[in-house]
Amino acid sequence: MLLKLANLCYDYPNTKGLVDLNLSINAGEFICLMGPNGSGKSTLLRILSGLATPNRGQYWFHDQLITAAYLADAQHRQRLHQQIGMVFQNTDVQLFNTSVAEEVAFGPRQLGLSAAAVEQRVTDCLALTACTTLRDRVPYQLSGGEKKRVALASVLALNPDVLLLDEPLNGLTIAAQQQMLTLLQRLRAAGKTIIMASHNFQQVQAVGQRFIIFNSAHQIAADVSADDLHRQPERQAQLMTL
Ligand SMILES: Nc1ncnc2c1ncn2[C@@H]1O[C@H](COP(=O)(O)OP(=O)(O)OP(=O)(O)O)[C@@H](O)[C@H]1O
């Protein structure tokens, strides 16, 4: 088991974020988190990435219980962030360097890799995300779609096992959405685990292998494989209207 949540709850000061989640995820799955606005998709990604810790219940990653006390140790935090990469909904919070190449080099440098190894990762990850020509641009000045690709390149540069993506298709043209989905499928084929939040079933139905659907009470209302979903036209129709 790669990830496991048991009776997990997360509360914000004035509202619930997640209510009583039970969930197991294996390595190599391609999961779509779906549900209406405010149902808890982003909150779950924040917990999985270690940016927030549950108020109640447990989260295990590779049999390690992830708690605030565990993450208080900088080495533990760094290890988790190397293994679980997150592309945020708002990429502006993620891009802070003065060039795209610097942006992608930042993580590998933090890991203490040699200059040659850092450069190799920058070159590879820019190529993989079709960002090679953006190398010397200022990240802040890129288009929305370009920013998403650079954010993904900077996450991939750490070579994480798990990729978390929060609405990665938002704001992209149809062609750019297709490119992003094709890239995510290639990454999954290369062995990565992909967990992607989306409220647009039309965009993700062709790629997801498992759909975890939240309700407005911040609970998991359904957890279905793509095969099961194909046999449930009513549920598909419901997902189309999220
Ligand atoms: N920083 C915050 N402070 C207080 N409440 C928050 C905060 N972030 C989220 N919430 C609330 O927690 C609940 C879950 O929000 P979350 O962002 O996880 O939902 P979501 O499914 O990702 O929504 P969306 O599709 O709009 O991105 C919502 O009721 C939301 O208003």
Automatic annotation (TrEMBL):
Q: What single Pfam family name could you report for this chain, choosing any that match?
A: ABC_tran
Q: What is this protein called?
A: Energy-coupling factor ABC transporter ATP-binding protein
Q: Which GO terms describe its molecular function?
A: ATP binding
- The signal peptide here is none
Alphabetized, the UniProt keywords read: ATP-binding, Cell membrane, Membrane, Nucleotide-binding, Translocase, Transport
Q: Which family does it belong to?
A: Belongs to the ABC transporter superfamily.
> Where in the cell is the protein located?
Cell membrane
Membrane-protein topology: Peripheral membrane protein
Q: Which domain of life is it from?
A: Bacteria
Identify the main location: membrane
InterPro entries noted in UniProt: AAA+_ATPase, ABC_transporter-like_ATP-bd, ABC_transporter-like_CS, ABC_transpr_CbiO/EcfA_su, ECF_ABC_transporter_ATP-bd, P-loop_NTPase
Q: Which SUPFAM superfamilies match?
A: P-loop containing nucleoside triphosphate hydrolases
